[in-house]
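In the current project phase, the collection of sequences with tokenised folds has grown. A sample record is quoted in full directly below:
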Amino acid sequence: MRRLLTALSVLLPLAVAGGSARAAGEASAGDAVQRGAYIFNAAGCLGCHTDDKGGGQPLAGGRALATPFGTFHTPNITPDPVHGIGRWSDADFIRALREGVGPDGAHLFPAFPYASYTRMTDRDLLDLKAYLFSRPAVAAPNKPHDLTPPFSWRFLLPVWQWLYLTPGPVPDDPAKPPAWNRGRYLVDALGHCAECHSPRTLLGGLDSDRYLAGNPDGPDGDKVPGITGAKGKGGIGGWSDGDLTLFLETGLTPEGDVAGGAMGEVVRNTTSKLTAEDRAAIAAYLKTVPAKE
């Protein structure tokens, strides 16, 4: 059980700006960057968009993600105006993460998990953009994907999106406690846990009937374990809330093993940086996911 749980989160309190109109605007911008930093960590942006092995600069892209559909290279998301997202407007940013469409109208490949990010609120999306635009710009060109037909045919992406993308945030369930709703938001929207922990169909969409049940063909060829209520190696049904929160904070499993590989990276870059309250919310939600062997 060396790679369990992909979970991430988003942010909390809103700071209050005061003073003159100019001071209020400056304070508001600063608050957005601070909130966005938390969302950035929770959403796992650093790991995917940085080519550590190749010596790339943070967020300059170029990381290769091997999948059953080919190898994707993550893009530059620094504020560089030529190679990055420096010319993106707020509307461009929201459209990309909510609808999977770039500023030029091109449909984006779903290796970028917009089918999960679409559930984010506008506020969180704009705070994330504010943080990204506060980072150093890196003039690193993007690398082309290495895909085989039909998965390389971008003109088919609108069909994929029609089948598998439901745009827009998901409202809270009033019948559930706040911690459960928060946990679902962290798991399904920011954390995009299902993107790795659920199997995919032949067309590359998530198999909703096997939600969080594990994926035998995960990124880079890794087998990703299930995180439903199943017992034993098939899930986390035997884990206590404390086991889950400790794992998210330290990577230590109840058996005394330590998460390595991709999950170790997630713990290091994301879940360990969440608040204790958010880790508890993730545990509260995951403990209610029905077991799937």
